[in-house]
Amino acid sequence: MTTKAYAALLRGVNVSGHKKVPMAELRALLTELGHGDARTYLQSGNAVFTSALDDEKALAAQLEGAIEKHFGFGVDVLVRDHAYLKAVADDCPFPAASLEGRQLHVTYFSRPVTSSHLASFDAARHLPEEFRLGDRALYLYVPDGLGRSKLAEVLAKFAPADGVIATTRNWNTVTRLVELTQAPPA
């Protein structure tokens, strides 16, 4: 049986004491669901696992259901395989190697977002902050960090209103998830 490595990106957990999902319990849930090599990264809802199931949407739905049953609240989950995560990192339009992790972020989307979705944004108004669209992802350059970003604040309002699930990770997490999904632990 062939298995594939995935990252599960949980949206909005363990933020300001809301939607608490202990990482040990998340790893246990993944194992109970029959997935292997369950690991977590940080406390912000990043899990890595292997599965014989080759369907990201089905894996996300399965984990969402398990989280709701176990914790009693819903959490949006995006699941992406190693190849996709690596492509997102490789395709970064900004000079990632010369930036701090807090200056560069990727927002992962549940479905493709086209430039027409973002046509109403006046990008020049937010310079030097910038964004570029990728494959089900948005790259966000914020020189002063995400917490001070006016552009991030505006962009955050667009996704939920359009029915798109979106979750953001800083560049350090983006690259670490690529590493963690590269190969199962020895």
TrEMBL record:
<dbReference type="Pfam" id="PF08002">
    <property type="entry name" value="DUF1697"/>
</dbReference>
<dbReference type="InterPro" id="IPR012545">
    <property type="entry name" value="DUF1697"/>
</dbReference>
<protein>
    <submittedName>
        <fullName>DUF1697 domain-containing protein</fullName>
    </submittedName>
</protein>
